[in-house]
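User: As part of a screening pipeline, I want to sanity-check one entry by hand. Below is the sequence and the SMILES for NAP. Please return the complex as structure tokens so I can compare it with the automated output.
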Amino acid sequence: MKQPNTLSLIYARSKNHCIGADGKIPWHLPDDFAHFKHTTMGKPIIMGRKTYDDHKTALPGRLNIVVSSQKNYPLADGIVQAHSLDEALAIAGANNPSVFIIGGVSFFSAALSHADVVYETVVDVDVEGDAVLPVFDFTGWHSHLLHDHPIDERHKLAFKIYKRSRNPVS
Ligand SMILES: NC(=O)c1ccc[n+]([C@@H]2O[C@H](COP(=O)([O-])OP(=O)(O)OC[C@H]3O[C@@H](n4cnc5c(N)ncnc54)[C@H](OP(=O)(O)O)[C@@H]3O)[C@@H](O)[C@H]2O)c1
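Assistant: Here is the complex for your manual check:
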């Protein structure tokens, strides 16, 4: 796998490792979305076709790359299609030292062993869904709790945002 200088994964999962149900993200957490937006802004983002189908628009301010095996999958203006993760990384990394993978399951699983940083939001709920991550082993990684978010009037669920770095960070 040809890699950028920094490869990051970013996702939110339930306590039982679910990230999606019926093609959607199973919660509405505006402050986690703001974290996602702030963290990925200006960076290329790589996603699977089903993750794209959840919103069907380009996320602004970022090079959007959608991976699909289908020839010329219809995509919104400005979005680039790749046919494999390697091709997506080659497109994304060409002029960018920092690249994000934003889903779904197979891309997180394939990229974890190459990732430098994982932004992991853990939502305080169990969810029955069809997009479920394996249990990732972060033994030896350096984990920092970035945010411990309580339930409030805009968030029906509590969540914690972790930044997990493979190497020590200063
Ligand atoms: N909670 C979160 O942080 C988060 C983040 C992202 C997504 N999600 C949720 O997760 C779900 C979507 O994730 P998902 O895992 O089901 O699907 P996905 O990874 O987004 O998309 C799967 C599709 O990607 C393409 N693909 C996968 N591997 C490929 C390969 N090696 N070569 C070429 N194409 C490949 C295929 O598209 P084709 O069938 O077109 O070939 C495949 O059907 C949705 O519910 C979404 O809302 C949640």
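Points to compare against the pipeline: The mean pLDDT is 95. Residues 11-12, 19-20, 23-25, 47-51, 54, 67-70, 73, 83-84, 102-107, 131 surround NAP (CB under 6 Å).
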